């Protein structure tokens, strides 16, 4: 299993690298567009709904990305702990959940005594995540966001830091305003030299769902790579532990056998001594 | 002096299809109709619908199918952000149809929830390819 994970992780890492240019260019395009946008263009557009802060006190939405399978050390456990503490913080609120991965879904189903609803689940997608999965997820999240009075959408997943470490990340996916303005580095102000087709606001409205899918796609890939890395490490230490155990047991076995032989010899020798 | 050229980059979430390839002419399927881009074009941001884009590099012409996305033209650089882009030559209509059928059947069985999402994703991919190959037939490429 360690070998399997090791072989797959190469592909997973390549997928992360391949997805970067797209996400990067997308961010840049959005930042530029946001900089070019005039206030009155913006109001009442589709795009505005995704940017605007919503009144506090509405439903909260959680997107939880876990693995489908176990045997990957503390990967799922830590993630579920983080999710549980988030749920505890917001236990008085109505919560809707989008679950990715079988482990997370099963965990959420077992929970009782919370005002919680699983609205969408995506299982069995690892380790062959594609952009199409991210699109399905985006559709579900956006549908939830437009149809329900959802205050904010929070994302909980494992980030792939290195082969040895994963980091749990809690991130706000929607509304968008904070995310993009926080970066703010690419805003070069209005240049006015671009032409747009269709109108800027419509363009932004069409661009944002794609931006969200690119985000979610990255999240899925990160989680996938992190899972494989965790599994690889877990399986490696499992083999190491088993080897140590075998060594110890072999020693014990040999000692016991030797002791048995010695006792038997002793008996034979003392028996023949008595006869003589 | 060398002739002015456009640098064409096509990226999709799954891979970078082309990176800064110098070409002479690009045609894009914009939402309001096809749009041709020659070197020294004005800066432009445009939304794309699914369709065919092609570029000319001297006498060579390559055709791609793209699924909805965006294009940015700025300082002789053309950047295409598409959800999917494939060389038209590499798409086989027969295979796309088979994949579409298979995904439909898997979805019809339901019950076993394992690969439902996978099937839905496959359905989407196949639908795009079928669309592309229909374009291909219409334009006799």
Helix-strand blueprint:
The complex is a heterodimer of chains A (276) and B (141).
Chain A: H1 2-36, H2 39-42, H3 46-51, E1 59-65, H4 75-89, E2 95-100, H5 102-110, E3 116-122, H6 131-147, E4 150-160, E5 166-174, H7 177-183, E6 195-197, H8 200-275
Parallel strand pairs in A: 1-2, 1-4, 2-3
Antiparallel strand pairs in A: 4-5
Chain B: E1 6-11, E2 16-23, E3 25-30, E4 33-37, E5 44-48, E6 51-57, E7 60-74, E8 77-87, H1 93-109, H2 116-138
Parallel strand pairs in B: 1-8
Antiparallel strand pairs in B: 1-2, 3-4, 3-6, 5-7, 6-7, 7-8
What does it look like?
The complex is a heterodimer of chains A (276) and B (141). By secondary structure, chain A is α/β, with parallel strands linked by helices. Chain A has a single domain (2-235), classed as ATP synthase, F1 complex, gamma subunit (Pyruvate Kinase, Chain: A, domain 1). Helices cover 61% and strands 16% of the residues of chain A. Chain A has helices at residues 2-36, 39-42, 46-51, 75-89, 102-110, 131-147, 177-183, 200-275; strands at 59-65, 95-100, 116-122, 150-160, 166-174, 195-197. A five-stranded mixed sheet of chain A has the order 3-2-1-4-5, with helices on both faces. Chain A starts with a helix and ends with a helix. Chain B has two domains: 6-88, F0F1 ATP synthase delta/epsilon subunit, N-terminal (ATP Synthase, domain 1), CATH 2.60.15.10; 92-138. In chain B, strands 1, 2, 3, 4, 5, 6, 7 and 8 form an eight-stranded mixed sheet that branches. In chain B, a hairpin with a 2-residue loop joins β6 (51-57) and β7. In chain B, α1 runs antiparallel to α2 (116-138). Chain B is elongated. The N and C termini of chain B lie far apart (35 Å). The relative contact order of chain B is 0.16. The mean pLDDT of chain B is 78. The A-B interface holds A 15, 18-19, 21-23, 25-26, 29, 33, 122-125, 128, 130-136, 193-198, 202-203, 206-207, 210, 213-214, 217 and B 11-16, 30-32, 42-47, 69-70, 72, 74, 79, 81, 83-84, 113-118, 120-122, 124-125. β6 (195-197) of chain A pairs parallel with β5 of chain B, so a sheet runs across the interface.
């Amino acid at each position: 299993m360690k070998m399997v994970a090791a072989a797959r992780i190469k592909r997973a890492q390549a997928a992360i690298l391949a997805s970067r240019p797209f996400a990067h260019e997308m961010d840049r395009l959005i930042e530029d567009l946001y900089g070019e946008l005039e206030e009155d263009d913006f109001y009442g557009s589709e795009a505005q709904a995704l940017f605007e802060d919503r009144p506090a006190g509405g439903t909260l939405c959680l997107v939880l990305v876990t693995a489908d399978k176990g045997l990957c050390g503390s990967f799922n456990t830590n993630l579920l702990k983080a999710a549980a503490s988030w749920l505890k913080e917001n236990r008085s609120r109505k919560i809707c959940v989008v679950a990715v991965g079988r482990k997370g879904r099963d965990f959420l189903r077992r929970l009782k005594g919370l005002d919680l609803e699983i609205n969408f689940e995506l299982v069995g997608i690892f380790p062959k995540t594609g952009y199409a999965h991210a699109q399905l997820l985006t559709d579900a999240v956006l549908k939830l966001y437009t149809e329900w009075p959802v205050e904010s959408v929070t994302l909980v997943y494992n980030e792939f830091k290195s082969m040895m470490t994963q980091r749990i990340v809690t991130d706000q996916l929607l509304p968008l305003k904070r995310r993009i303005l926080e970066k703010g580095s690419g805003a070069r102000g209005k240049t006015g030299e671009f032409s747009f087709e269709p109108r800027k606001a419509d363009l932004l409205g069409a661009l944002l769902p794609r931006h969200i899918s690119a985000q979610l796609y990255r999240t899925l890939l990160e989680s996938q790579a992190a899972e494989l890395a965790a599994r690889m490490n877990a399986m490696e230490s499992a083999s190491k532990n088993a080897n140590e155990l075998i060594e110890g047991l072999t020693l014990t076995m040999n000692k016991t056998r030797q002791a048995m032989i010695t006792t038997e010899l002793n008996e034979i020798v003392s028996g023949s001594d008595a006869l003589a | 002096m060398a002739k002015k050229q456009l640098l064409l980059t096509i990226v999709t979430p799954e891979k970078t299809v082309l990176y800064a390839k110098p070409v002479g002419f690009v045609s894009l399927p914009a939402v309001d109709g096809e749009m041709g881009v020659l070197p020294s074009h004005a800066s432009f941001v445009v939304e794309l619908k699914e369709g065919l884009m092609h570029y000319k590099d001297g006498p060579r012409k390559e055709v791609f199918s793209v699924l909805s996305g965006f294009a940015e033209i700025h300082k002789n650089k053309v950047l295409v952000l598409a959800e999917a882009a494939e060389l038209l030559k590499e798409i086989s209509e027969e295979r796309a149809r088979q994949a579409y059928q298979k995904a439909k059947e898997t979805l019809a069985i339901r019950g076993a929830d394992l690969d439902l999402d996978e099937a839905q994703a496959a359905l989407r991919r196949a639908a795009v390819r079928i669309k592309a190959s229909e374009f291909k037939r219409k334009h006799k490429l």
